[in-house]
Write a structure and sequence with these properties.
About 80% of the residues lie in helices and about 0% in strands. It has three helices and no strands.
Length: about 60
């Protein structure tokens, strides 16, 4: 997800997406622990998207 798209969303929507991403990351970590390596790319991408959302939320908090 691009930062421009993230900035276009409302804070409530971003909070909801953060919660969803946390659950997704948990599931992907579980899959990787079972030896399914295809979750690694998705995990990395989700982690970066989560960081982008947190950055935008912190910018708005100022």
């Amino acid at each position: 997800m691009k930062a421009e798209k993230i900035r276009g969303l409302e804070s409530a929507e971003l909070e909801k997406q953060l919660a969803d991403m946390g659950e997704t990351m948990f599931r992907l970590r579980f899959q990787m622990s079972l030896g399914q390596a295809d979750g690694l790319k998705k995990y990395r991408e989700t982690k970066k998207d989560r960081a982008r959302i947190l950055t935008v939320l912190r910018e708005r908090a100022k």
